Amino acid sequence: MKVCQNQFKVGERYIYAFDNNEGHTEALVEIVKKTNKCAIIKFIEIYEEHTGNGIFAYLLKINGTMGASYELLKAGE
């Protein structure tokens, strides 16, 4: 089932999670902006990071943002 971007709201928090060859990655994020293609997120808390390069920890440290597929977001805290 395709995820509809309309179910996501700017300012709300969601779990951003995926699995890859490095392992499971999961973080609490907040949507700061929405586009048709992706949500622009900032990291609130990282639960487990296996990105291979520590990019989520870096973005959390500098309060940076990145684009995230709506498919990888689910209701959070």
Features of the shown structure:
mainly beta, 5-stranded antiparallel sheet, 48% strand, 1 helix
Secondary-structure blueprint:
Blueprint (H helix, E strand, L loop, with lengths): L12 E8 L2 E12 L4 E10 L6 H8 L2 E4 L4 E3 L2
What does this structure look like?
There is one protein chain. The chain is mainly beta and 77 residues long. Helices cover 10% and strands 48% of the residues. A five-stranded antiparallel beta sheet has the order 4-3-2-1-5. The longest helix has 8 residues, at 55-62. The radius of gyration is 12 Å and the shape is globular.
**Number of E strands:** 5
Structural category is: mainly beta
> What kind of oligomer do you see?
single chain
Q: In which range does the helix fraction lie? A: 10-25%
Largest sheet, order of strands side by side? 4-3-2-1-5
As a percent range, the share of strand residues is over 45%
Number of helices: 1
- Distance, first to last CA: 23 Å
Task: Calculate Rg over CA atoms.
Answer: 12 Å
The global form is globular
Uncertain runs are none
Average pLDDT for all residues: 91
Order of helices and strands: EEEHEE
Biggest sheet overview = 5 strands, antiparallel
What is this structure, in a nutshell?
The chain is mainly beta and 77 residues long. Helices cover 10% and strands 48% of the residues. The chain has one helix spanning 55-62, and strands at residues 13-20, 23-34, 39-48, 65-68, 73-75.
